[in-house]
């Protein structure tokens, strides 16, 4: 992903996320600046049709939604998949699978033992097909999950 892709990322986000407040451009810039090697876009015909943001992080403290500053921890213990979205015109074309494959390849290369994500808008079955499992969330994690809307689940994938 490049900074020049962010206008398309924001456009895709606006049509994909209907149950939570969209993140700001500055939040996406912070994540991209912190970890450009773990953020991806998919293009078709020169147009961005999907994106995936991930960052090395601490499993026990998932990031807040729309955080304006993204300082990576010194010793991350997971690769946190923050956001995956596919433009409606590209759904069913394999774009999502390709972006998740890029994420999983990156996960395998990193020296962390788990990946994590917060499944939103009823997406838990989608993530289960990749091996992610729901985890019991403690009170501090449940507080952070609340900012992601209803019907959310904290999930993990172990190597």
From TrEMBL:
What are the EC numbers?
2.3.-.-
At the top of the EC hierarchy, this enzyme's class is transferase
GO MF entries: acyltransferase activity
| Pfam families in the record | Acetyltransf_1 (PF00583)
User: What keyword terms does UniProt attach to this protein?
Assistant: Acyltransferase, Transferase
InterPro entries (alphabetical): Acyl_CoA_acyltransferase (IPR016181), GNAT_dom (IPR000182)
Q: Which domain of life is it from?
A: Bacteria
Segment forming the signal sequence: none
Domain named N-acetyltransferase is located at 1-159
Q: Does the keyword Acyltransferase apply?
A: yes
The name on file for this protein is GNAT family N-acetyltransferase
Organism of origin: Azotobacter bryophylli
Organismal lineage? Bacteria, Pseudomonadati, Pseudomonadota, Gammaproteobacteria, Pseudomonadales
């Amino acid at each position: 992903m490049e900074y020049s892709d962010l206008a398309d990322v924001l456009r895709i986000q606006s049509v994909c996320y209907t149950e939570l407040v969209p993140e700001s451009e500055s939040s996406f810039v912070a994540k991209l600046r912190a970890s450009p090697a773990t953020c991806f876009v998919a293009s078709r015909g020169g147009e961005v049709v999907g994106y995936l943001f991930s960052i090395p992080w601490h499993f026990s403290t998932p990031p807040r939604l729309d955080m304006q500053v993204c300082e990576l921890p010194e010793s991350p213990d997971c690769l946190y998949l923050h956001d995956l979205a596919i433009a409606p015109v590209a759904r069913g074309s394999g774009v999502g699978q390709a972006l998740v494959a890029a994420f999983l390849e990156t996960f395998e290369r990193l020296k962390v033992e788990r990946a994590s994500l917060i499944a939103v808008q009823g997406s838990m079955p989608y993530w289960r097909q990749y091996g992610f499992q729901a985890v019991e969330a403690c009170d501090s994690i449940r507080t952070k999950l609340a900012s992601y809307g209803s019907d959310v689940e904290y999930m993990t994938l172990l190597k």
